[in-house]
Amino acid sequence: MSAFTLDELADMLRSCAGEAEQLELDRTFEELGYDSLAVMEVASQIERRYGVSIAEDELAEAENPRLLIEAVNSSLATVGE
Amino acid sequence: MKVVTGLGVAAPNGLGVPEYWRAAQHGISGIRRITSFDPTPYPVALAGQVPGFDAAAQLPSRLLPQTDRMTQLSLVAAQEALADAALDPATLPRYSVGVVTASSAGGFEFGQRELQALWGQGSRHVSAYQSFAWFYAVNTGQISIRHGLRGPSGVLVSEQAGGLDAIGQACRQLRGDVQAMVTGGVDGALCPWGWTAQLSGGLLSTCDDPARAFLPFSASASGQVIGEGGAILVLEDAASAAARGVEPYGAVTGYAATFDGRRSGGNATGTGLRRAIEQALTSARLTPADIGLVLADGAGVADLDRAEAAAICAVFGPSQVPVSVPKTMTGRLLAGGAALDVATALLALRDRVIPPSINVDECAEGLGIDLVTGASQPLRKSSVLVLARGRGGFNAAVVVSRATEN
After folding, report:
1. What is the pLDDT of residues B292-335, one digit of tens each?
2. Which of B59, B64, B66 is the best mutation test for A, with the most CBs of A within 10 A?
3. Which ranges in chain B are annotated with CATH 3.40.47.10?
4. Per-residue pLDDT tens over the stretch B351-376
5. With contact defined as beta carbons under 8 Å apart, do B352 and B254 qualify?
6. Architecture of domain A6-80 in this structure
7. Interface residue B220 vs chain A (CB under 8 A)
């Protein structure tokens, strides 16, 4: 299974929580203008589309795009096994 | 003295204050067949729908997935009102501006969408934003967050009296360190779920002619037309407005609310409405002779119209004060309607003109109401009384006056 990328995250954020000026891997979602509900919303879409499951505490710790992408990819790796 | 320094309007006959006020003075209606969903299966197909609103063009994309149309309209109206008041909350102390709006059912359209997701696709498809987007307080919250307004805030729910009750509550909160309040109401849910809820109330007109469906005080009154929209106002202490060099539209000089319980006959008695009028005049330190115009609730339902006419006659005497129902051009905008009437009253005071009630040729016999029909007329006095009633027994009255003469 192919990895979840920043571009895909950007697309999903745009569709379910609105545009970011520029999505950067290491800026926090808060700095990017996305509140906790926006992150929950995008996580829920990722779960549905990729058939993965992101635990709540994992999601709480994923404070920037890099950490969220890592969480999704590690879950995808488990699904692929 | 509490003055209004900013107005924002989203009305079926005009989005934005200039367009709305032009239409209102010329008797231009915004009542038409619903286009936001297909009304064919329903017994009522007419509503007041705000024209030409493009949320994506007028709001940041971030706000779109978490709001429905009612909240979007309220955000645009709030933005217009703050800009009109030249009030930049960022330059003021942290807790000095609050928000109190009125709502009748919260984000009903948002709720419909998420209920459809829940039952159509499953719980994992329900938006995280449903957690707040359906609240009664959603407009208050979104306006507060968007403009950083951290002062005393809340929502008033008293059906169609809410637009006045919110303004009354904002007046109470305007004290101490609170320098300004954003208030009023924008309401509406022109979606099948909202429509079904309104139909069950049994007061909507089934007439399909936009010029004949909503005829308050007429012998041909056949029920109500409802719609979406309302107004947001910036309320400020007169001294604070003067210090900023801002010319107010006028002052909120009187307010009262009363309630007619079910056991005493509800809204159909008119006794509570009469008390609201009397108390609002008393709180304004005015007499009936000071009032140049009454903007009536205008139910469009015969017994409710009679009750309102009786209350007005009891205070003013038969046909002693001009009465108008600008709602004949918009339909009744739920919790937004009376807030829009207050905005209309302030514009009427500014330009000394009474906008007409349209489509009503003649009042029902014996009502004793001097209804301004056909064309606008000059407003000859310096205060206007606005009335509103909410289903279940709510009555409210607000007096607005020219700021310079009080």
Report:
1. 999 999 999 999 999 999 999 999 999 999 999 999 999 999 99
2. B66
3. 2-244, 253-405
4. 999 999 999 999 999 999 999 999 99
5. no
6. Orthogonal Bundle (1.10)
7. no
CA distance B64 to chain A (A): 7
Decide if B158 contacts B187 (C-beta within 8 A). no
- Choose the CATH number for B2-244 among 3.40.47.10, 3.90.1150.10, 2.60.120.260, 3.40.190.10: 3.40.47.10
Instruction: State which residue of chain B sits closest to A45, comparing Cα positions.
Output: B125
Digit-coded pLDDT (tens) for B218-246 = 999 999 999 999 999 999 999 999 999 99
B61 touches chain A (CB under 8 A): yes
**Where does B224-305 show beta strands of DSSP type E?**
229-237, 250-259, 291-295
Model confidence pLDDT, tens digit, residues B331-350: 999 999 999 999 999 999 99
CA dihedral over B129, B132, B137, B143, signed as positive or negative? negative
Contact between residue B295 and residue B384 where contact means Cβ atoms under 8 Å apart = yes
Q: Which residue of A has its CA nearest to B63?
A: A18
The secondary structure of A31-73 as a DSSP string is HHT--HHHHHHHHHHHHHHHT----HHHHHH--SHHHHHHHHH
Domain B253-405 has CATH 3.90.1150.10: no
Q: Does the model's pTM come out above 0.90?
A: yes
- pLDDT-derived band at B405, boundaries 50, 70, 90: very low
Residue B105, CA distances (Å) to B42, B156, B202, B397 in order: 20, 11, 17, 22
Q: Is B66 on the interface with A (CB under 8 A)?
A: yes
A28: tokens are 């926090």
Bridge partner residues of B250 (DSSP): B4
DSSP B61: G
Please tell me which of the candidates B60, B124, B128 has its beta carbon nearest to residue A18. Answer: B60
Q: What is the DSSP letter of B160?
A: B
Contact A17 B60 (CB under 8 A): no
The domain locations on chain A are 6-80
Closest to B374 (Cα-Cα) out of B389, B354, B394: B354
Looking at residue B164, its amino acid is L
Task: Tell me which chain A residues have a C-beta less than 8 angstroms from the C-beta of B125.
Answer: 48
Name the E strands within B286-365: 291-295, 322-324, 353-354
| Phi-psi sector, B207: left (phi>0), alpha (psi -120 to 50), beta | beta
Question: If you search the block for the tokens 């938006």, which residue do you land on?
Answer: B127
